[in-house]
Design brief:
- With about 110 residues, this protein is mainly alpha-helical.
- The chain has one domain.
- It contains seven helices and two strands.
- The longest helix is centred in the middle third of the chain and has 13 residues.
- The chain is globular and about 40 Å long.
């Protein structure tokens, strides 16, 4: 059982599919949407690559990956500017084409280059 989390720690648990993800959602529901600009959580290349690897390995489903991207898009306390194109594509598979292992492998190749 994790000790109490703040909003930023909760966001990190959620965007990394952390061990305390479910608890983090309940913390966030109590925090509301307000934030300080210096308290933004960033979706780094490392976080994105880790989540994409979780999809490839089968740890998370296509639906979970899409929900993850939608969650990031709707939060103004998460900075995803660096990986905005990836997040948009994952959040909008009906516009960008279905999420497939092949597409995720291509995303990882581009990320690593």
């Amino acid at each position: 059982m994790m000790m109490s989390m703040n909003r930023a720690e909760s966001l990190i648990q959620i965007i990394t599919f952390g061990e305390f993800k479910e608890q983090a959602f309940s913390v966030l529901s109590k925090c509301g949407m307000g934030h300080q600009d210096d308290d933004l959580v960033e979706v780094s290349d490392a976080i994105l690559a880790t989540v994409l690897q979780k999809f490839i390995s089968g740890s998370i489903s296509e639906d979970e990956l899409e929900e993850w991207a939608l969650f990031i898009e709707c939060r103004d306390d998460i900075n995803s500017d660096k990986n905005e194109g990836y997040i948009y594509a994952l959040a909008n598979p009906e516009l960008m084409g279905a999420i497939t292992i092949e597409k995720i492998h291509k995303m990882l190749l581009i990320l690593d280059s």
